[in-house]
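G., the chain you wanted modeled:
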Amino acid sequence: MTINSLESSLQSESRLQQEANANMASQLFQTDSFTEDLNCSVCLDFFTEPVSLDCGHTFCRRCITLYWEESNKKSCPECREEFEEKNFSTNWALANLAQKTRTLNAKPKATGNQHLCEEHQEELKLFCETDQKLVCLVCRDAREHKSHSFMPVKEAVEFYKDRVKTSFDSLTAKKVAALSVRLAQIQRISGVKEQSRSLQSLVSADFTKIYQSLREKEQSLNREVREQEQRILDAMEGNVAVIDKYLSSVQRELSKLQKQMGEHDGVTFLKAETCRERRFISREETLPLVDTALSIDKVGGPFQYKLWREMADVIKPAPVSLTLDPNTAHPYLVLSEDLTSVRLGDQGKEVPDTPGRFDRRSSVLASEGFSAGKHYWEVEVGTKTWWELGVAEESAERKGHITLQPDMGYCIMCLVYGNSYVALTSPRTPLAIKVKPCNIGVYLDHEGGQVSFYNADNMTLLYTFNQTFKGRVFPFFNPGLNKDGKNSAPLIICGVRYY
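Predicted structure as tokens:
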């Protein structure tokens, strides 16, 4: 037999022996009872130096020694039998069997679905309320859990299930609330998008009207210019024809004179000269000159201003002309003769106490009220240090101490103490206005429920009220207190008049 064949034979026998051992181990560990007999109930691993107690239970020497040291007891970890002495004897049979099992690379089988303590390999049967953790019976008796509160796992499960349910219900409520807020936010997003589309459509429609009006006006004016041009050109070109006819007759006379001047016979020359008609040369001729310029009446002068006035019917809202209603004015107010300005006087006047008159607040309304549509007016405030402007519903209270806020029928913006701009909401809304306006624009959209205030000098939006109006709405004016004589200037309505 060669060396190669001998080695091959030995390898085959080795493989056969390993397969036999593996088959034996597989058969040996087919039953749970066998593997359980090889397990230490403390460490749940194959026995290492197994020792048996007087009660008959077997443990690893190290496991039982540590158990006795940590628990400071002389008892069996399984049956709890107590002994007078810490006596045990080596179980050689289990030691040999465990060693053989390790040699076959077999692994112990866990017992059921039990959850075991990592430290003591005991079933976790208790819950330590103090440490908030699962423990075994050995842990309960250990020093680190002394004076701790325990409860059975089943009881702890029920207790914490109730807590979990409470948390679950709370989180569910929060989820529902969050979903509700999310839905509301999405609806508002849709609302903003829809509002944006509506505003863009409105802007496009308004500009389309303006463009159309301007285009029609442009075409009309250009047509008038072209027609005027044609009339003037026809007259001028007709005059050119008259001049051309005159030039032809003059040219004929020149030709005759030229021929006469070339005549060498004196007698013939004199005969021609005495016979020629001299009236054409001697008479005075005045040729007409048509010098008609294009009329600039339509497009000349302040053309853009005239165009702006003509577009008043297109621009909505156009600035309205307002006058003040004397029957609503506080007795201390002084109105101008044309009823377009108001200031605070030094003393009250004898006036009828009409139902619509302000008797405590130094205010006045406009004569014009609006029950529909969009309207805009401007008020000159100049350098005044105190004023109130806005609108008042017809039904709003005017007697006694009045609260100027929307739920009382007033949408008012004011300036107080010279530099504090405020929207009279509830509570009041301070306004951060960097550039002090000299003119305030007030915009009213009755159907839209909107009252907006602008710096009319540059059309910067200052504040907007959103209010549902129940009836007619009147412009409101209050020139403010005249402290130290610094606020004596009047409020002036900057109405636009068309003549």
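Residues 1-7, 28-32, 106-111 have pLDDT under 50 and may be disordered.

Shout if anything looks off.
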